[in-house]
């Protein structure tokens, strides 16, 4: 057990039994509003002021903020994002269970997701340019699981969005691609940068976006 002290407050800390990337995470377990007085009798009772100050310190202290300041939980942007050159398609998923992609084989129940069709649900077909504007509008206005979207790259046929979690600042990469042709198809890929499991966050995000797009005439090519 270690301790941290300052002129106005001190905290006792201990380390988690678990580690993150071989680093032990500190956890504040007790905070007081002033320096400890070793000469103060152990049976003395705290005053109302001490209790209020202690409560304020505990409420303002955040383990999440400490972890976020020490570790870069946003992760590094993968170098393989974008439309692949050898065979035009979005990238496949890693073996971890925190990614879905329309580029996967349909037999891969963990990673495969069906593409979208932006004209399947409407009587009057729209152009790719109109569909792109609809997609960007929905991405900006929809926050599945309260993740904040940030569009980092747009092209005539491609969009890359970073979704940041509200607490730890974890980042997921979501891509949309309009392949050439007259089939009105939109491919996509949604993947977490860190971890091995996503508790279906990526799948729920894609579904939430699709449900909003369906009101504009979009549809999934298959049940998902």
TrEMBL record:
Pfam families in the cross-refs: DUF1499
Where is the sequence biased in composition, kind Low complexity? 33-49
Q: Where is this region: Disordered?
A: 33-54
Instruction: Identify this protein by name.
Output: DUF1499 family protein
């Amino acid at each position: 057990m270690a301790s941290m002290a300052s002129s106005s407050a001190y905290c006792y800390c201990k380390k988690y039994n678990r580690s993150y990337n071989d680093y032990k995470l500190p956890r504040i377990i007790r905070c007081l509003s002033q320096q400890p007085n070793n000469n103060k009798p152990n049976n003395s009772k705290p005053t109302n002021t001490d209790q209020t100050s202690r409560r304020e310190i505990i409420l303002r202290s955040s383990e999440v903020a400490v972890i976020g300041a020490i570790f870069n939980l946003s992760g590094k942007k993968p170098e393989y994002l974008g439309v692949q050159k050898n065979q035009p398609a979005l990238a496949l998923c890693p073996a971890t269970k925190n990614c879905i992609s329309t580029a996967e084989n349909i037999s891969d129940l963990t990673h495969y997701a069906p593409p979208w069709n932006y004209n399947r649900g409407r009587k009057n077909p729209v152009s790719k340019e109109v569909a792109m504007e609809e997609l960007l509008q929905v991405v900006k206005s929809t926050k599945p699981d309260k993740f904040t979207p940030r569009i980092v790259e747009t092209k005539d046929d491609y969009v890359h969005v970073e979704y940041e979690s509200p607490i730890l600042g974890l980042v997921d990469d979501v891509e949309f691609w309009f392949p050439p042709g007259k089939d009105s198809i939109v491919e996509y890929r949604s993947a977490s940068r860190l971890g091995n499991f996503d508790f279906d966050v990526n799948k729920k995000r894609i579904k939430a976006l699709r449900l909003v797009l369906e009101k504009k005439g979009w549809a999934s090519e298959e049940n998902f």
